[in-house]
Amino acid sequence: MQNKIRLALFGALFYNITQGLAFTIVRLQAEALGDFRTLGLVVGLPNFALVAGSTFWGVVADRWKNRRAVVVLCSILSAVLYIPLPWLGPMGLVTVRTIQSFFLGGMVQIATLFSELDPDARATLMGKLEAALGFGWGAGAFLGGFLVISGDYGSAHPSVILSFLLTASIGVFAVVGYMGATERSVLRIDEDLDFAPYFWKLSRLFITT
Q: Cα separations (Å) of 68 from 71, 147, 178, 190?
């Protein structure tokens, strides 16, 4: 049990290192490629995709009855999507980052996985999870500030390419931690839920933005 908890914490730590890295390098790349409008788009639109992704992957996790599979799938796909970012223009960066954030929405299932590792110590595990996530984010953002010289952003400079490849590699490496997580078998009642109206409202919000 303790090994599974350590592995899961390991995965959460490295996952949020990628998020901290991306928080720095994606924004600096967007600002160098365009202007503050591009920066606003690369921050704003992915947040809407994250909301849609959280809803969608939550439904998928319940349908599959396997949250670990959702976390592993979303972790790998979102990590791989860091690779093409150095070669993209402003709109390409915004588009791929938005698609990527849709998959990042599935990572909210990490908290559920942790709560089921040891039902008798949920509060303790959630505290450790938040500590790992916070430390990972801070370490990643701090590291992102040193990886690339500011003048290199805005092009496929080797240092920019290396920083995005490193981010992708760490994201894929984090999957190792989730593989040992187990989900309790509980009786679920399947309900036919129609989420189309919610996605329609979200699509109108995208268009308005």
A: 5, 32, 7, 19
Whole-angstrom CA distances from 81 to 43, 186, 195, 204 are 16, 34, 26, 25
Contacts of 121 (CB under 8 A, 6+ apart): none
Residue 186 per-residue DSSP state = -
Identity of residue 157: H
CATH class of 2-181: mainly alpha
Domain positions in the chain: 2-181
Which of these, 76, 84, 65, 82, lies nearest to 168 by C-alpha position? 82
Q: What does the block give as tokens for 30?
A: 């967007």
> Residue 160: what pLDDT?
92
Supply the DSSP symbol for 63: H
Mind listing the pLDDT tens digit for each residue in 183-203? Answer: 655 445 555 556 566 666 667
CA distance 153 to 33: 8
